[in-house]
Specification:
Strand content: over 45%
CATH architecture: 3-layer Sandwich
CATH class: Mainly Beta
Helix content: under 10%
Oligomer: single chain
Number of strands: 11
Number of domains: 1
Number of helices: 0
CATH topology: Rieske Iron-sulfur Protein
Radius of gyration: 13 Å
Structural class: mainly beta
Largest sheet: 4 strands, antiparallel
CATH superfamily: Rieske [2Fe-2S] iron-sulphur domain
Distance between the termini: 8 Å
């Protein structure tokens, strides 16, 4: 059964940036888009299991720091090689200045 997890404060993430969030042995990446929306994906690249929180956010994309593969963080879609397996994306919501993810 899915549940909402309090992941971080909205102020913890700058616009067009990403942070790492670990919960119950899993790693997530939480993003703040240029239009001030929040998104969440698995936190490890599907290619070499590198932490995406160390990557570069450009508009609605995250570039993996190891081999420069790119994902659309809104959907998790792999959009530039060498990544070819999509990330899992999670629903987010904001309440009282906190970002929640549904896991």
């Amino acid at each position: 059964m899915a549940k909402w997890i309090d992941a971080c404060a909205t102020d913890d993430i700058d616009e067009e940036d990403v942070i790492r969030f670990d919960h119950e042995g899993r790693t997530f990446a939480i993003y703040r888009s240029p239009d001030d929306a929040f998104f969440c994906t698995d936190g490890l690249c599907t290619h070499e299991k590198v932490h995406l929180s160390d990557g570069l956010v450009m508009e609605y994309r995250i570039e993996c720091p190891k081999h420069n593969g790119v994902f659309d963080y809104r959907t998790g879609e792999a959009v530039r090689a060498p990544v070819c397996v999509n990330l899992k994306a999670y629903k987010t919501k904001v309440e009282d200045g906190r970002v929640y993810i549904e896991v």
